[in-house]
Each structure stands twice: as structure tokens, then as C-alpha cells.
Amino acid sequence: MFQIFLFTPVPEYSGLLGFDWDFFMGVIFAWVNVAVIIFILSWLLYKPVRKFLGDRRDRIASDIETAEENLRVSEETRAQYNSKLANIGTERDEILADARKMAIEREAEIIAGANNEAGLIMERARRELQMERELAQSEIRNQIIQVSTMMAERFMGSHMDAAAKDKLLDQAIAELGDAEWRN
């Protein structure tokens, strides 16, 4: 406290808070200090804080956009999944129909192959039967010739010479050749 006059007594404060000149100067000085600090801090920190808040706002906006995009993609995937689930019955029926069609075609191929093979087996059996029939006819002719030769020898009473045998053989073959062989 300044005393302007050296001889004036210092007044005593009567209360806790005195509204005097020093008090008002202190309040004004405090307000000025606060205003200066606010001005300096706002001048120094305003742009960095504003930049930080802008970056934060942009990051939050991009996170929201990413989340919305992910939500949209998941909704599309869900819709595709639901449509596939809805169409699974028809798809199953198409697959089964294709499988049946392929099985019927395969069955027809197998049956055609079996019929073809059976035809070949039957043809081979017919040829073998025909060869056996011809062999049997040949054997029967030979036996008939032998029997007729033996009967002719007994009937004639003697042995025949080779020329007589050949003549009788040719005659028997001619007679047998005219006859048809029946199955």
C-alpha cells in the first residue's frame, strides 16, 4: 500500500472485504491479465486446436462412411444369401433333374452296349452252331457212307475193289446231296 503522504495515517479496514481503490485496481489488473492470457492462448493455440478438431471430425466422418459401406456390403451379402436360400429348392431340383437325365443317358448307353455285345455273342453262337451242324453233317455222311459200304459188301458177299467202292460212294453222295438236312 502506497501512502502518498507520509504523515497520513493508514486507514484500518473495518471488514473482510473493503471496496477501496486498491481492491478495484487489483480486480481490474486480474481481469486484464485474464484477457491477455486468453488472447495469447487463443492466438497461439486456436489454429492447432482447430486443426486437431477438424482432423478428428474428418476421421470420425470417414469411420462413419466406412461403417455405412460395411453395413451396405453386409446387407447385400445377406440379401444374396437369403435369395440363394430361397432358390435352393429350385437349384436342387435342377441338379437332380440333370443327374437323372445323365443317369438315363448312361443307362441307355449301357443297355445299347449290352445289346450290341449280346448281338455279337448271339452271332458268334450261330456261327459256332452252323460250324457244328456242318461238322455233324459231314460226320453223319461219312458214317452213312461207311455203313452203306459195309452193307453193300455183305450184300455182295465179297470185298469190293477200289473202283467199285468209289462208284458206290459217288452214287450215295449224289443221293444224299439231293436230300435236305433239317434242324
Protein model, in words:
With about 180 residues, this protein is mostly helical. It has one domain (about 25-180). The chain has two helices and no strands. The longest helix is centred in the middle third of the chain and has 136 residues, at about 20-155. The model has no long low-confidence stretch (mean pLDDT about 80).
Major sheet attributes: none
Measured distance between first and last alpha carbons: 159 Å
- The SSE string, one letter per element, is HH
Strand content: under 5%
Helix/strand-derived category reads: mainly alpha
Percent in helix: over 70%
Regions with pLDDT < 50 over 5+ consecutive residues?
none
